[in-house]
Write a structure and sequence with these properties.
Layout: E1 2-11, H1 15-26, E2 31-35, E3 46-48, E4 56-58, H2 69-74, E5 81-82, E6 86-91, E7 98-102, H3 106-115, H4 122-139, H5 150-157, H6 160-168, H7 171-178, H8 182-189, H9 206-216, E8 225-226, H10 230-244, E9 247-250, E10 252-257, E11 262-267, E12 270-281, H11 285-291, E13 304-310, H12 323-326, E14 330-333, H13 337-348, E15 358-361, H14 363-366, H15 373-377, E16 381-387, H16 400-416, E17 437-440, H17 442-449, H18 475-478, E18 488-490, H19 504-515
Parallel strand pairs: 1-2, 1-12, 2-9, 6-14, 12-18
Antiparallel strand pairs: 3-4, 5-8, 6-7, 10-11, 11-12, 13-16, 13-17, 14-15, 15-16
Helix pairs in contact: 1-10, 1-19, 8-13
Length: 516
């Protein structure tokens, strides 16, 4: 048994943990990061998924919006983010028309609204965008400071009508009131349902919290493609942590954590122990509870992700839209307001939604570097498909492999319903002659990444501010990273303002320790 002491021991080596390690090591603290997998980065990694195929896919996390410029600047990160021209394209099922939102050409966007019969929503779409922009401009600058209270945040937003529409009324109710067209309503609502299982009118406001994080990033709400894939982000963070002097141990299975800072772990057959003056948890709160020997509350994820490599982009039913434009942003599939509600109803009853609501992205259009020159020259493209309203409870009593295959078929069927040709016929084949398609379910995330319930946020999202009566006496409380144990702080997506690829959990934990 090897034993040692550190100023800080970090459990889990995801991107948030690497942010914390870099900041703390730069401040002179002795830091050790323990990561179970062979490489650091957690869900923010790239991988050559298909044997013999030189395509590096962002295997789990895939877009960046919430990573503050301050973190990139402070840690001197060589990270490039590419902005997508097109916001989204949404085929209207059963027709040869679709809604294309072109951020560079408002007139073309207006014409597209008119083409699907949604003229009445043109002004509403712009007005709602202005409202969310005001929220983003007010909240985003607060993200890298200690928590504001609800009252302080409301004053920063400065408009009671906007505050009510986004923070107090169910976001689906707001959308239904402000938009008339079912397709347009669905396009706006989807940001509230990414990884969140909720009805269109969600009285719990879980959908509101999800929506808020999706529209405040960078003060604009834009979601960008990391050049070189998500592995370029975690790779830059790992380099920053190591160069600052942090120790990163991979293949380290943490087996226990105690409230007094003792962390037991195993590397191969070697059992080791480190004692940290402080312990930072980059794992989900439920996983930390398990390591502490406590009874965890298991969260629930609600998504399925499918990675594909295609010989070329598929043809659309809408011949007025170039597939390179349609797939360059978010390609919404069967995500009208009514379809999203129907999907929630079906999944609540234990059935896979038919059709399955999907968000689809072609990263190789924005960043060809993730493909080898040979693949680029052959016209190949990646496709990332993210299915909504597929809660982890669907796996209860089911064979996970069989259900994964069923969900994969459901995703392809949903896509085929709005395309002009079957997607399966366009799949590239790997070195073994197998189609290049990989599906990850909530159970796959739980098993592979230790995300309980497959929840991509590590648990229910919280407002990015404190309630007016919250206790904010300690540094950890003020930064939103406190646990019930003073020596243990959250530093991952399970912190108050965590979730997505942001580095915020790690940044806030580091600031709390340095302040304290």
């Amino acid at each position: 048994m090897e034993t040692g002491a550190r100023d800080v021991v970090i459990v889990g080596g995801g991107h948030n943990a690497l942010v914390a390690a870099a900041y703390l090591a730069r401040a002179g603290r002795s830091v050790t990061v323990l990561e179970r997998r062979p490489q650091p980065g957690g869900a923010a990694i790239s991988a050559e998924v298909f044997p013999g195929v030189d395509a590096r896919l962002s295997r789990y996390s895939y877009l960046v919006s919430l990573l503050p410029e301050r973190i990139r600047r402070d840690l001197r990160l060589d990270i490039r983010l590419a902005r997508r021209r097109y916001s989204s394209y949404t085929p209207v099922p059963g027709t040869d028309r679709g809604l294309l939102v072109d951020t560079h050409d408002p007139a073309a966007t207006d014409a597209s609204f008119a083409a699907i019969g949604a003229d009445a929503d043109i002004r509403a779409f712009r007005d709602f965008g202005d409202d969310t922009a005001r929220v983003a401009a007010a909240i985003w600058p607060t993200i890298t400071g200690p928590l504001l209270t609800r009252a302080e945040t409301r004053r920063a937003v400065g408009d009671d009508r906007i505050w009510h529409d986004v923070m107090e009324a169910p976001i689906g109710d707001t959308i239904a009131r402000r938009f008339a067209d079912d397709t347009v309503r669905g396009v706006v609502l989807t940001d509230a349902l990414i990884g969140t299982f909720a009805p269109t009118i969600d009285e719990t406001l879980a959908a509101n919290r999800c929506f808020l994080y999706h529209v405040i990033g960078g003060g604009t709400g834009h979601w960008d493609v990391p050049v070189g894939g998500m592995g370029a982000v975690s790779g830059a963070l790992a380099r920053a942590a190591r160069e600052a002097g942090a120790e990163l141990i991979t293949g380290a299975e943490v087996t226990s954590v105690t409230p007094d800072g003792e962390v037991g772990f195993q590397v191969g057959d070697d059992e080791r122990k480190l004692v940290g003056h402080s312990v930072l948890s980059g794992v989900a709160p439920a996983e930390l509870a398990r390591l502490l020997g406590e009874t965890p509350t298991r969260p629930e994820g609600a998504q399925v992700k499918v990675n594909l490599l295609l010989r070329r982009l598929p043809r659309l039913r809408d011949d007025a839209v170039d597939p390179r434009a349609a797939f360059a942003g978010t390609f919404h599939v069967n995500e009208s307001f009514g379809a999203l509600e129907d999907a929630h109803t079906r999944a609540s009853a234990g059935a896979i939604p038919t059709p399955l609501p999907l968000e689809t992205y072609c990263h190789s259009l924005t960043d060809p570097s993730i493909l080898s020159p040979a693949l680029q020259n052959a016209g190949a493209h990646t496709l990332t498909v993210f299915g909504l309203q597929t809660p982890d409870r669907l796996f209860d009593g089911a064979d996970p492999d069989t259900l994964r295959e069923t969900l994969q078929r459901a995703a392809l069927s949903s896509l085929d319903s709005v395309l002009a040709e079957p997607l399966a016929e366009l799949l590239w084949t790997d070195a073994d002659g197998r189609p290049c398609i990989e599906t990850a379910t909530t159970r796959d995330l739980e098993e592979g990444l230790r995300m309980p319930g497959g929840n991509i946020f590590h648990g229910p999202l919280e407002w990015p501010f404190a309630e007016d009566d919250d206790e904010l006496a300690t540094s950890a409380e003020r930064w939103g990273v406190a646990t019930h144990h003073p020596r243990i702080l959250m530093c991952g997506s399970g912190s108050r303002r965590g979730g997505a690829v942001s580095g915020l959990g790690g940044f806030h934990a580091a600031m709390a320790l340095l302040e304290g």
